[in-house]
Structures are given as structure tokens and as C-alpha cells.
Design a protein that fits this description.
10 helices; alpha/beta; extended; 10 strands; five-stranded parallel beta sheet
Length: 282
């Protein structure tokens, strides 16, 4: 994630017509070595404020929340407020009640927030910042690998009956048994974003058939998914949940592209819409 942040900072600095110094305030726990990497980006034009005593102790590597119940004393709160007021860029949203107009008053120089989460859209709405000029960038993509691995840890635990293996270990009994397998099974992915695409890639390696759903659909997106899995089907819906169209993309094993792509607004879309009306009355 940090390499992407550094590139964003350089691009952002390079887009300025006039030379100017910008201040970054790190508002969530970050490992010291990564802080040093940020400081090395452009020392003459970028000041990085990092005060560990203002941040909660972490529970594990990469913990950007820290322990619950951490509070600042009066002196620390004064330093925190001063840093927020100076900042042009925040590394993560500051905790607490800074929302909407309160954020604007507390951080009058703020132009950009780099978050450590992938999806922050609903948080932006809750904070009342959806109509502001504030630039908000995310860490989209950095969690794809670890979370995809977690998905298959859970799937393999289930299909290989790890509970039985643990039970046998505890009872010191070792009996032969038969398990199921992932190959040939269908994996449904609800929300085919970067995490979903990585899951689809790994599913293909296991010989699984993949189905995916998404709010928006384009032939290019379906083709991208089809290039990493055995079969992809995307159903696109409006926010109300009413079907608008479906898209299918297929490929044969070992084929890098997709053999068949189809966009359908016809009978299938009308049938799905009819089923939706029958269920909901809309």
C-alpha cells in the first residue's frame, strides 16, 4: 500500500503549478520504517508529522485502529488538534467526531485524505463529506491477496473436514477417511472487485467454476474475469435491486481469452424483471 501512497504523493506534488510545501499528518498507527519511507519522498516539499504517543498501541502488524479505549490527555489533545489544523494531507481519517463542517473547521488546509481501507464510500456519506471538494483515496487492492488466501483457508477447512482431523489429533486416533474436493464445484462471488477477482483467479487454479455478481457490467470487465476463471456470469442491478441486464463470458481450460461473450437485455432480462416484480410487487 505504501508504495502506491508514495506514487500518489509524487503525482499530486507534480500536478501543482507552483512549488509549495505540504504537511502530512499520520493519524493512525504506522510502523516507523514506513514513516521513514514517506519522509524520504520529497523532504524539501513534504513535511511528515508522526507522533507515536498520540496514537493507540497496536495489537498486531498493520493494525491501523489500535487498542480500544485509548484516550489523549489534555496536552496530547492540544497537539493533535494543532497537527490536524496544519495538515494539507491526512494519512487516514482522524477518529472522533470530526464530520462535515466540523472537519472543515478543524482542518482548514485539508485537501486530501489517504485512507487505509479499501471501501470508504459509506463512511464518507456518514461523515457528510460526499459533496465536499476533499480528495479521498483508498487502499483498494492491498487486501486482495491476504483475503483471498483466507477464503480458501476456510473452503479447504470445510471441504477437507479439518474439524475431524483436529478431533483425531486430540483423541490420538488416526483413521482413514474420505473427503470432498473443490475441483468441479461452483463458487459464487458477490461483488467482483479486486478481492473477488483474486478469489476467482485462485478458484481457477483449483478447477472451480466461478459465478460473479456486480452492480455495474461491461464487456471488458466480464472479459477480464473470464481470463482468470473457467466461467464468469455477471448480473448487473440498479441500487433498488431491479435487474437491468446480464452478461456471460466463458472460456475453455487453458485458453487465455474468452470463447464467448454475450450481453443480454432481452428475454432473460425481462424474465428476471418479471420474477422480481412477482416477489416484490414492484
Amino acid at each position: 500500500m505504501l508504495s502506491t501512497v508514495i506514487r500518489k504523493i509524487r503525482d499530486w506534488q507534480g500536478s501543482k503549478e507552483e512549488w509549495q510545501r505540504n504537511t502530512i499528518f499520520i493519524t493512525s498507527p504506522l510502523e516507523p520504517e514506513h514513516v521513514e519511507r514517506l519522509k524520504a519522498v520529497d523532504p524539501e516539499r513534504v513535511e511528515v508529522i508522526y507522533e507515536p504517543d498520540l496514537l493507540p498501541p497496536v495489537r498486531y502488524i498493520g493494525d491501523h485502529n489500535g487498542i480500544a479505549g485509548f484516550e489523549l490527555n489534555e496536552e496530547q489533545q492540544a497537539r493533535w488538534d494543532a497537527n490536524v489544523k496544519r495538515a494539507d494531507i491526512l494519512f487516514d481519517f482522524p477518529g472522533g467526531s470530526l464530520q462535515g463542517d466540523l472537519m472543515a473547521d478543524a482542518a482548514p488546509n485539508l485537501k486530501w485524505v489517504q485512507t487505509t481501507s479499501a471501501g470508504v464510500g459509506q463512511m464518507i456519506v456518514r461523515m457528510g463529506l460526499q459533496d465536499s471538494d476533499l480528495l479521498v483515496t483508498t487502499a483498494s487492492g492491498v487486501h486482495a491477496g491476504p483475503l483471498a488466501e483466507y477464503v480458501f483457508m476456510v473452503l479447504l477447512n470445510q471441504v477437507k473436514d479439518m474439524a475431524l482431523i483436529r478431533k483425531g489429533r486430540e483423541e490420538r486416533t488416526w483413521e482413514r477417511y474420505c473427503t470432498d474436493e473443490l475441483e468441479g464445484k461452483t463458487l459464487a462471488i458477490v461483488g467482483a472487485g479486486k478481492i473477488g477477482r483474486r478469489v476467482a483467479t485462485i478458484a481457477g487454479a483449483f478447477g472451480m467454476r466461478t459465478l460473479a455478481t456486480a452492480r455495474t457490467v461491461t464487456p471488458d470487465r466480464a472479459a477480464e474475469l473470464a481470463s482468470t476463471s473457467s466461467m464468469v456470469r455477471i448480473n448487473s442491478t440498479r441500487c433498488s435491486g431491479r435487474p437491468t441486464r446480464s452478461f456471460s463470458a466463458c472460456r475453455t481450460p487453458g485458453h487465455r481469452g474468452h470463447d464467448r461473450c454475450r450481453c443480454d437485455r432481452g428475454d432473460e432480462g425481462r424474465r428476471d424483471a418479471g420474477e422480481h416484480r412477482a416477489r416484490t410487487g414492484r
